Amino acid sequence: MVAIKIVRAVNKYSDAAMIEIDVLQKLARNDATGKHCVQIRNWFDYRNHICIVCEKLGPSLYDFLRKTAYRPFPIDLVRELGEQLLESVAFMHALKLIHTDLKPENILLVSSEDAKLAENKDGSFSKKVPKSSAIKLIDFGSTAYDHQDCSYIVSTRHYRAPEVILGHGWSYPCDIWSIGCILVELCSGETLFQTHENLEHLAMMERVLGPLPRHMLERAEYVY
């Protein structure tokens, strides 16, 4: 069984698809066991639609959360997922690659099977959890090499690091920030920074973490 990602025949999407293919092939060459990231099998062009053939995996963490009404994951499961996320991102960073778009939608469970966890006092089963905690990263269309221009906006809003919002440019730490946001979301069942506006986003960060360092504010390219 395989999964096929079909990319619309639009130049910007086709360009991103070719970047993704290049990254997937690089990852495959350096990850013989296929432990960290989805494995590419092949790719082809069908009537100007780039088609990427990969191994078939299970649902995303986002899909699993949605299916279970956004109920928080058990803390032990979050710990296991966090360890794998950090290992996978460390693997990419060692290859001088920055994912730039880590979010629950781009983290897939390896298996589609789930199990039930007893959490009621009478011993009845009422909470579904993944049967296996094994995960892999997907969606490398926005992945950047560390020597590339890093002045443009990256990351989906809710997982975007403060240096990106302030216009400092970005590097490997933006992936680590995203992981932190993801783990809090898995623990709580709610997006940590639920906003679509920069000033509010920064204010929410300060509410959680305290004031942003002065040196970051003084270097900000954008003033809010």
Automatic annotation (TrEMBL):
Keyword check for ATP-binding: yes
Family matches, as Pfam families: Pkinase
Domain Protein kinase positions: 1-224
Keyword Transferase part of the UniProt annotation: yes
Keywords: ATP-binding, Kinase, Nucleotide-binding, Serine/threonine-protein kinase, Transferase
SUPFAM superfamilies the record matches: Protein kinase-like (PK-like)
One annotated Gene Ontology cellular component of this protein: nucleus
Transmembrane segments: none
Molecular function GO terms recorded: ATP binding; protein serine/threonine kinase activity
Superkingdom per UniProt: Eukaryota
InterPro entries: CLK_kinases (IPR051175), Kinase-like_dom_sf (IPR011009), Prot_kinase_dom (IPR000719), Ser/Thr_kinase_AS (IPR008271)
Protein name: Protein kinase domain-containing protein
